[in-house]
Amino acid sequence: MPRGSQMESKRRRGEAEEEEEEGYPWKKQTTTRTQRKKGDWSLKDFEIGKPLGKGKFGRVYLAREVQSKYIVALKVIFKKQIEKYGIGHQLRRELEIQSNLGHPNILRLFGWFHDEERIFLILEYAHRGELYKLLRRNNFLSETQSATYIASLANALAYCHQKHVIHRDIKPENLLLDHQGQLKIADFGWSVQSEKKRRTMCGTLDYLAPELVEQRTYDYAVDNWTLGILCYEFLYGVPPFEAESQADTFRRIKEIDLNFPPAPLVSAEAKDLITKLLVKESSQRLSLQKIMEHPWIVKNADPTGTCKN
Ligand code: ATP
Ligand code: MG
């Protein structure tokens, strides 16, 4: 990890007593709970590279911190958009939450800054991009790949639930892969905002738990449900309750209209795990701990969490 002099001085300006974390030059800045380092970063600190993608609120670019040469992804969000949806305060709060999450399977938010029109998020760069693209390219994933990703997700979610954070918006588009093929959950803490967006922008309902579809109270178990949906989608290439219309998807989720097609061939153990997660009564869903101990995971998941694609 290169550490330039500017980086060092930024560090010194930061809270020197905070714990060091090797490999994360922005750790100091992001862990601050004061306004002291506000404005520490600006666009001048970065060389902007190729665009990596386009989201609903802005664009993401490859970028390099000038002094340290550290490669990051810079997400640019237009303030106008944030104002339009009235989510400024919430965004701020959620960025605070995300920047305090440190887990190998959660995309790091190193820090953020803004100018007149835009907010810039300094994110860990996920070299291999969206898991979704891998899924589209291969149609479906192997049991080893699927189990590895589900185990990584269960691990990351257990960490989040411990910190009282529920994601609620886990879907393949929000799952990125780093250069080793390790899964990274992106857009953490964007959940409430994403839901608002979903209602206003007609996004997919495929990943919503029945209690969310029915607008009932919900808890951490919504994320466990989503693991069942993803496990199915990894193995079969399509989410289980996909339908022509939103109304039909709604109905299929509410009725747990779950079928396992004959092809591709999927093991009985994998189906067992899916069936134990896609349970209407949220308290009856398999716990994250039990997912990690499930025979299919134990047998198939790569313990290093990396996958050759
Ligand atoms: P939103 O985050 O607003 O819900 P989104 O997920 O569609 O929307 P972004 O998060 O802005 O969009 O990202 C757009 C695309 O840019 C992603 O789908 C991904 O391909 C790419 N991308 C985003 N962040 C990174 C990153 N850290 N590393 C590599 N690629 C990224
Ligand atoms: Mg995203």
UniProtKB/TrEMBL annotation:
It catalyses: L-threonyl-[protein] + ATP = O-phospho-L-threonyl-[protein] + ADP + H(+); L-seryl-[protein] + ATP = O-phospho-L-seryl-[protein] + ADP + H(+). Residues 46-297 form the Protein kinase domain. Coiled coil: none annotated. Residues 1-38 are annotated as: Disordered. Gene3D superfamilies: Phosphorylase Kinase, domain 1 (3.30.200.20), Transferase(Phosphotransferase) domain 1 (1.10.510.10). Keywords: ATP-binding, Kinase, Nucleotide-binding, Serine/threonine-protein kinase, Transferase. The active site is at 169 (proton acceptor). The gene is AUR3. The keyword Nucleotide-binding applies. This is Aurora kinase. The keyword Nucleotide-binding applies. There is a cross-link at residue 171 (Glycyl lysine isopeptide (Lys-Gly) (interchain with G-Cter in SUMO2)). Its EC number is 2.7.11.1. PROSITE patterns: PROTEIN_KINASE_ATP, PROTEIN_KINASE_DOM, PROTEIN_KINASE_ST. Pfam families: Pkinase. One of its GO terms (molecular function) is protein serine/threonine kinase activity. ATP binds at residues 56, 75, 79, 124-126, 173-174, 187. Belongs to the protein kinase superfamily. Ser/Thr protein kinase family. Aurora subfamily.
